[in-house]
Amino acid sequence: MHYGIIATWEMAFEGIKKGFELIEKNFSSEQALEEAIMDVEDNPEFSSVGFGGLPNEFCEVELDAAFMNGDTLSIGGIAGIKNFSNPVSIARSLMKNRFNNFLVAEGAEKYADLNGFKRKNMLTENAMKQWNLRREKVMKEGLSPYDGHDTVGMVALDFKKTICCATSTSGLFMKLKGRVGDSPFFGSGLYADSDIGGATATGLGEDIMKGSISYEIVRNMEIGMSPQESAEKAVFKLHKKLSDKRGKAGDISVVCMNKDGDFGAATNIDDFSFVVATDKQPLKVFKLNRFF
């Protein structure tokens, strides 16, 4: 029986360790993913996810998250939510509904309140300090305000052969109020089908959404490509299309896993990191550079 879990970025190491231990104890991939991503969300040292996430133009922390179950294709997503500690848990809870699977801003906050989720001020002193420094540089030096868009995205396969995926992010640093990137959008930021595999993406959401890259990776695996081939083909194709049509492609990095526990990753940047643990691959951080 093959099983495993994979995530974008080295910051997910401890979360992946916890998630993998849960899978080995026969917990579901849903449970493992929620616990793994909560570990990242709760750590104030990570400036692009959860508590300590970098704020928007008005120094407000707006969070996005999503969850997908590959057995049923059930989905749950939230965007632009403020002052709740674990957006991934709220997203997961929305999967149980037949309707109203994706909620935003005040609607998402009202739902979270009514369903007993914990409120918390997600703006840390360090994040506020970084915001003030960046604002000063923007005003004095004319720098672009946008920086930091490292979504934590994960894919997990459990003993029952269920594949799930989930994402969580605070989005672009100093983004416009209400801006949402690819992370909570199914097909772009994440996609799972237990008959095939799952994928998730991180990078510049505005460009990733132009290619529905997570869905494409899963479909590549469906027609017989390995996870690695699927990831590389999808990243190269979207990078080239954006470059040809727009003159430039933003950051695009992906990880994926198929129903047999094989995994893949690809990127168009240098020094992309990801974390993986499977029954065949001990827990490890990999560093990856662009392959073209």
TrEMBL record:
<protein>
    <submittedName>
        <fullName>N4-(Beta-N-acetylglucosaminyl)-L-asparaginase</fullName>
    </submittedName>
</protein>
<dbReference type="InterPro" id="IPR000246">
    <property type="entry name" value="Peptidase_T2"/>
</dbReference>
<feature type="site" description="Cleavage; by autolysis">
    <location>
        <begin position="150"/>
        <end position="151"/>
    </location>
</feature>
<dbReference type="GO" id="GO:0016811">
    <property type="term" value="F:hydrolase activity, acting on carbon-nitrogen (but not peptide) bonds, in linear amides"/>
</dbReference>
<dbReference type="InterPro" id="IPR029055">
    <property type="entry name" value="Ntn_hydrolases_N"/>
</dbReference>
<feature type="binding site">
    <location>
        <begin position="202"/>
        <end position="205"/>
    </location>
    <ligand>
        <name>substrate</name>
    </ligand>
</feature>
<dbReference type="GO" id="GO:0005737">
    <property type="term" value="C:cytoplasm"/>
</dbReference>
<feature type="binding site">
    <location>
        <begin position="179"/>
        <end position="182"/>
    </location>
    <ligand>
        <name>substrate</name>
    </ligand>
</feature>
<dbReference type="Pfam" id="PF01112">
    <property type="entry name" value="Asparaginase_2"/>
</dbReference>
<feature type="active site" description="Nucleophile">
    <location>
        <position position="151"/>
    </location>
</feature>
